[in-house]
Known about the structure:
Layout: H1 4-14, H2 30-48, E1 56-61, E2 74-77, E3 82-88, H3 89-92, E4 99-102, E5 105-108, E6 113-119, H4 129-148, H5 151-173, H6 185-190
Antiparallel strand pairs: 1-6, 2-5, 3-6, 4-5
Helix pairs in contact: 1-4, 2-4, 4-5
Amino acid sequence: MVTETDIANMALSRMGHNRLMTSFDDDATTEGNLVRLHYPRLRDSILRSHPWNFAIKRAVLAPEGSAPAYEYTYKSPLPNDCLKVLRTRVESENIEDDYRIEGRYVLSNSNATSIEYVSRVTDPAQFDTMFVDMLAWALAAECAMPLINDARVAQNAASMFQSLQRDARSVDAQEGKPRPIIDAYDWIIARY
């Protein structure tokens, strides 16, 4: 089972840093403070960048408060752990759906909007192994300059992250049935 400390230590070792962290939350060293500063933002950014299978959730949203000023009838709050809305239930049936994300709300004309979304997964034990590897490389790229002051190491870590990201997305996308894409053919024909 992988922990945040393991991911931090992978990043530190990949940049050639010889001091490893003993505890993610309690390490008061420069390394510990720097890793804790960047880790949550990098994790969430990488999660948001792709519909990772381990991070997908579904929810039915209930309207809240007053209606939007115009265009839509209902305003429903997004789940607290929502990083990115992938599609609505209507879109899952290959039908165009009329909704908009504004702030932390979904605006729609439906009084119960069902969504599929990328969630904020904070437990590293839930991460895919390729995601763990990718996050460690991203952390190494982010922390290399402040810790070891070597641009070459930082660039190498960034290149490794990008290479692994392509592979990880490809492998992740091969699991399960692909999500349907709304057919844009009618829209294109309408232009002529």
